[in-house]
Amino acid sequence: MASPPQDALRAPAFIRRLFSHFPLITHPVDLPPMSIEDFQLLSTNTTTRQHTEKSINNNTLYSFTDSTDSSIASFNPTCLKWQTYLKIRNIPFKTQSSNNHASPSGSLPFLVISSQSDRISQTISSPKLGKWIEEHAVGSVNTVDTDGGDYRAFLSLVEGAIRDAWLYALYIDPTNLSTLTIPKYTAQVSLWPVPQILGSQMRQAAIDAIRKSSTSTSPTGTELYSKAIEAFRALSTLLSSDTWFFGASEAGMFDAEVFAYTHLLLSLEIGGSGRVVVEGLIGFENLVEHEERIRQRWFS
Hints:
A hairpin with a 6-residue loop joins strand 3 and strand 4 (121-125). With 300 residues, this protein is of the alpha+beta class. The protein has helices at residues 13-21, 49-55, 77-88, 126-136, 149-172, 174-185, 194-213, 221-239, 253-267, 275-282, 285-298; strands at 59-63, 93-97, 110-114, 121-125. It folds into two domains: 25-136, Glutaredoxin; 149-298, Glutathione S-transferase Yfyf (Class Pi), Chain A, domain 2. Helix 3 (77-88) crosses helix 9 (253-267), helix 5 packs antiparallel against helix 7 (194-213) and helix 5 (149-172) packs antiparallel against helix 8 (221-239). The longest helix is centred in the middle third of the chain and has 24 residues, at 149-172. Strands 2-1-3-4 form a four-stranded mixed sheet. This is Mitochondrial outer membrane protein. Residues 77-176 form the Thioredoxin-like fold domain. InterPro entries: Metaxin_GST (IPR033468), Mito_Protein_Transport_Metaxin (IPR050931), Thioredoxin-like_fold (IPR012336). Residues 228-294 form the Metaxin glutathione S-transferase domain.
């Protein structure tokens, strides 16, 4: 599920005081030397990518997830995008359920690694993940120019029309908000009335985000779903009969961007008005096949 703005899950003062006594998760950002067994034998103090590939092991991606198994996809598109790209670039890691309160940047995901030689931990926030991956992953055969005009134009469809439709379907549609979104994001916080408060805040944050990105002052679900389907049509035309986007010989960041939404739309039991955009996506066979390729290769 696409992350609303960073303050979307920011609870009122009295709730935050409650969290201070009963935190959702305790994550020591400044870990003492080898204080967690899971971070053994990790290393990022390298001078070459080959050395890095051998020495980095068992990194932990803190994200919105139901499992520590990295082959289980996150239920949040932003987290799933990075989870997928880490897999595409052959970075070994496991996943850990977390929340925005535990993140040093205020949003998920973030990656925690440890240095075997220096016996210290390092936290890579989501804004820095892309650069870190490029510096530490083995070279990629995907050479798509991410600064090119075509790339940016199609990326805007994903981050604009498709994201807005997702936000409406999952955060504003009352059926999905109550049966999918709130239970997923508040699974660790069953104490009443925290789920209800967070649900209301997430819904309002989604409304604000959609209004900010939309040309309409009061966009309707019908309007947003229609734009998302047109965006999927454009992506389907772009992909055509190729295996990966932009004719690349291997999957890349854009493939991860698209998969993050297509996989969740196709795999979650989305009901209510959200079925419109799900059915629209299903109509583009090559996008469905693209989702299946990534899922079978990296999430099975």
